[in-house]
Amino acid sequence: MKSKFDSIVRAIFPLLCLTLVTVSMPGSDVWAQEKEERKTKKAQSMGQKVYEKLTEAQELIEGKQYDQGLAVLRELAKEPKLTPYEKAQLYNYFAYTYFTLEKFQDAIRSYKKVLEQPDLPEGLIASSLYTLAQLYFITEEYKKAVVTIEKWFKITPKPSENAYMLLGQGYYQLNDYKKSLQPLKKAYKMVKDRGDAPKQNLLLLMRVDYYELGDFKNMVNVLKELVVLYPKTEYWLTMAGAYSELKALDKQMSIMEMLYEGGNLPKGNQQLNLANLYLLHEVPYKAAVIMDKGMKQGIIDKNVRNLRLLSQAWLQAQESKKAIPPLKAAANLSKDGDLDVRLAQAYMNLDKYKEAIDALNTGFKKGGIKKKGQANVMLGLANFELQRYNSAIKAFSDAAKDKNSRKTAEQWLTHARGERARQKQLRDSIKENNARANAA
Q1: What CATH code is carried by the domain that includes residue 421?
Q2: Which terminus of the chain is more exposed, N or C, with fewer CB under 10 A?
Q3: Which of 317, 316, 381, 306 has the alpha carbon at shortest distance from 339?
Q4: For the segment 342-400, what is each residue's pLDDT rounded down to a tens digit?
């Protein structure tokens, strides 16, 4: 229970600003003041015996002798003639003690008994309701928390921004994001009207409400304030994501670029995101540099998808030589032949026809080539450039069987046959001339 309580307190209490003052808890300034006032006013509020018993219990509780303090309170509870006010104070002590012992359900029951008493001072009603609402938060009974804090608002003339934040948090936990925003906006206005900076938790709550409502425009406005007042990389990244939702990809790219240049994009997926944005905005060289550096540093995985993207970036940047190594590595990792076809195209761009033929043959062996006709056209072209006309004619003939590449293949097939015939005629002519020369 301790670890759960600690985590809840860390997460919620900075937001809720729970103070022990609200229940007149021992050791607080309010309790010290009330202690002095009781010396002169105790007869007006409770009997001497009750006062002494509560004082005794208080001293034991302050000394962390909780069992003994509770025993005194239980003994006092047996008194049949307690006034409503005396009962309220008795259960108030019970509530605080149970809260201190992290017996939250017992504390809740005690506060409910306080509120059952008639004709209580408004201050005691208000403090009990507010603390009861906070206890419902601890026990994750958010609907009860919201109902309770709404009751508190009805009797409180000047609620603080912390109370509005508490209500907003309650509606958020109930997934009612529109209702959550209403008190949060009031809290925000109160803070701004005073000329103060909004608390980080307030802005974060507003941000998440806008996100859940799909209101990315207002979400960006909140994030702009967050990055100024509480600059964190995660807020910049969230803003970049919001701009993506708004289709403002240029602004998203600017933020991501700023973070990268500042060394604040350490994750591979973040760097890949920026690289894709560069490609989208036709800045392939920057995309390639980021991916190449990330892979060398081991930040970006050298898998098929990433290697293919890197080669694509180098090709778009007209850096064909640099595109070869990642594309070759991707092709080696791939189980189908499509990447081998792409590798062959890169080799063709560099006039490396033999390497292109080897890549294509590897691809055909793997199988799974989506545009087999085009691959055969490419194979025919590479062989044609190397004057391997028979191999070229075979490849073009295979390509002509595919309706998508038939027209191109038949044109090249005619050209290759003609070139083969011309070369044969040239060789025959040379042979005949040599024979004549020898005969002479």
Answers
A1: 1.25.40.10
A2: C
A3: 306
A4: 999 999 999 999 999 999 999 999 998 999 999 999 999 999 999 999 999 999 999 99
In the chain, the amino acid numbered 26 is P
Question: Does residue 174 contact residue 142 with C-beta atoms inside 8 Å?
Answer: yes
Of 104, 126, 157, the last residue of a domain is 157
Q: How far is CA 405 from the centre of its chain?
A: 46
Range of 125's domain?
1-157
Identify the pLDDT of residue 7: 35
| Residue 358: Cβ within 10 Å count | 16
pTM of the model: 0.75
Q: How far is CA 202 from the centre of its chain?
A: 18
Residues contacting 18, CB < 8 A, separation 6+: 131, 134
Q: Long-range CB contacts (< 8 A, 24+ apart) of 16-19?
A: 16/134, 16/137, 16/162, 16/165, 16/166, 16/169, 17/160, 17/162, 18/131, 18/134
Domain CATH for 103: 1.25.40
Contact 396, 365 (CB under 8 A): no
Residue 228 lies in a domain: no
Residue ranges in the chain whose pLDDT is less than 70:
1-44, 435, 439-440
CA nearest neighbour of 207 among 254, 239, 171, 245: 239
Give the C-alpha separation, 35 to 410, whole Å.
Answer: 105
Asked if residue 90 belongs to a domain, the reply is yes
Report yes or no on 263 lying in a domain.
no
Residue 277 lies in a domain: no
- pLDDT value of residue 440: 61
Nearest to 412 by CA among 337, 338, 356, 420: 420
What is d(CA 11, CA 245) in angstroms, rounded to the nearest whole number? 28
pLDDT digits (tens, 9 = 90+) for 369-379: 999 999 999 99
Which of 157, 188, 212 is where one domain is finished? 157
What is residue 155's predicted lDDT score, i.e. its pLDDT? Answer: 94
Count of structural domains within the chain: 2
